[in-house]
Specification:
The chain is of the alpha+beta class. It is 20% helix and 29% strand. The strands form two sheets. It has a four-stranded antiparallel β-sheet with strand order 1-2-3-4, covered by helices on one side.
């Protein structure tokens, strides 16, 4: 089996071709954001239509996340299904990355999510927190001077094509609002703890 014949490569190629066709761009213009092995509950890859007959059998495959909010379910034969019937609204999709690094042990933890991995209630709550924090207008700055074994916290959020990163940590003086702290707490609660856990890990 050549690399091009590998089930993962075949599935990814099919998903990229479909997304490129919908976006009307070359396939090399479609970005891969993530791909994980999954087992789907039926032959319809968990995305059967109401009038569709699906075989009730576990189907090995992949979850493929592409740029512009496209998510696909695939099997190992290269069959793919888009996770939503409509083309995603690129002006409303949320993507988020959060990381905490540094300290005496130099350990790092991170959390990443997007609108497709959250429930509708979580998306609504996160969107509200972003709005209340006025996140895209929050100043971001680097430490005034290097701090030995200092901790650095980064929160990057994109809504549609608009994105912004806020950096906080030792050596950075910032008068953050309660609304921003509430947003960070929401994210931090979903982030794996560093070991040993360091208290005060927030923006």
């Amino acid at each position: 089996m050549t690399t091009g014949d590998h089930p993962a490569v075949v599935a990814l190629s099919a998903a990229i071709e479909d997304a490129a066709g919908l976006l009307r761009i070359p396939t090399d213009g479609v970005a891969l954001e993530g791909m994980d092995a999954r087992e789907w509950p039926d032959s319809c890859l968990g995305l059967g239509r109401e009038d569709e007959v699906c075989t009730d059998a576990v189907t090995p495959g992949y979850l493929i996340r592409l740029g512009d909010g496209f998510t696909y379910h695939a099997d190992q034969q290269g069959n793919v299904r888009r996770a939503r019937d409509d083309v995603p609204h690129t002006d409303t999709e949320i993507r988020l990355r959060y990381s905490v690094s540094g300290g005496i042990a130099g350990q790092t933890t991170s959390y990443e999510t997007d609108s497709y991995r959250l429930t509708r209630a979580e998306v609504d709550e996160l969107r509200r927190l972003i709005t209340e924090a006025d996140f895209f207008n929050v100043p971001s700055s680097l430490p005034e001077s290097p701090v030995a074994d200092g901790i650095t916290v980064r929160l990057w959020i994109a809504v549609g094509r608009r994105n912004h990163e806020v950096v906080r940590g030792d050596g950075i003086n910032a008068d953050d609002t309660e609304a921003l702290e509430a947003l960070v707490s929401w994210v931090a609660d979903r982030t794996p703890a560093r070991h040993p856990r360091v208290s005060g890990e927030s923006l």
